[in-house]
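Long-time lurker. I teach an intro course on protein structure, and each term I like to show students one example going from raw sequence to a predicted 3D structure in token notation. This year I'd like something fresh instead of my usual example. Would anyone be willing to generate the tokens for the chain below so I can use it in lecture? Attribution to the forum is fine with me.
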Amino acid sequence: MVWVEILAVVVIWLSFWSLIPRDEWWFRGADFPRLQILVLGLIAFVLLLVWDQPWDIWRKLIVITLIAALAYQLKMVLPYTFMWKKQVKQVSQHQLNPKQQISLIISNVLTSNHQYHLLIEQIQQHQPDLVLTLESDQIWQNALSVIEQDYPYRVPVPLDNLYGMHLYSRLELKDTEVKFILSNEIPSIHATVILRSGQPVQLYCLHPKPPSPTEAKYSTLRDAELLIVGDQIKDLDQSCIVMGDLNDVAWSRTTRLFQRISGLLDPRVGRHYVNTFHANYPLLRWSLDHVFHSTDFALIKMQRLPYIGSDHFPMYVVLQTGRAFEQVQEEPEQTDADEKEAQEAIQEGIEKAEKEEKIVTDKIAQDYKNGTKMP
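-- Reply from a regular --
Happy to contribute to a lecture. Here you go:
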């Protein structure tokens, strides 16, 4: 049963590893599998209790520390279960008003995935007002042309670098803009969508790079991009929705800070997880695709849609706006410490982006000087 003690120690280590305030991917990666760590910790805890051996100091120390680790993991994941108070109210039957509603599908399609028909079938079945595809290139844009007759408003950003995105809308879009906030490789879509009632809603579609050995070694730019958007939203006196594959989990330090800075709500709190990634590994799933919204929106429906051949499941959400909801829903509380932390993270991200851009620019200039590239 020595392996049980080893398992417990690993759970303890992983639980508190993520508390270290570092941006390297090997630190921030511990944010993602909290559910899996919790389950392994509970297994280790039960086995340690029933282990038919004398209770020496080492075993007692492991059990006490493991209890602390499990309490911490529960604190992080319990808000996204039915045992927690709902952050977003459910729209009752008598409150339904189609003119004040907006429905959307978010889908990271996976560039190399060619099962276009599966997503198209889901779009045709649910008929959402908005469709946001991520990792979509020109080939995906061509395949989705069959839905264009139903979606007269479109913002295409076809890229081959896994960060292309396309926004399709039945509702009128105004002031559409594609921005590259911190990197000339990572686009985001900003627009105003007009509901059937005529009410404008500010829309942000994001897909920052994840901290990983193959993408970004640091989470600095991802965190800063999210917080820059949150900082803009806090000064908006307007309905707002942020959606996309944020390459971060709902319970991470950055995502929770984003909510407090922006004042936006998460409809998953008090309900259930919507674990959209990884579609091919049931035991290794967490929420990477998100919808956050202002306090005037309440929830009608939220669900994960079936498999479409991607490593992500699509996400389907229906919201309704109204002053009645705004009066009973509270914004997450922001402190002075939150504001300071956010501004420091934003500044660090801007400095890192400028440094990386300078490195790229200097390399191109040197290539030209050496004659290895033609201007």
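Some talking points for your students: The radius of gyration is 22 Å. The CA atoms of residues 211 and 299 lie 31 Å apart.
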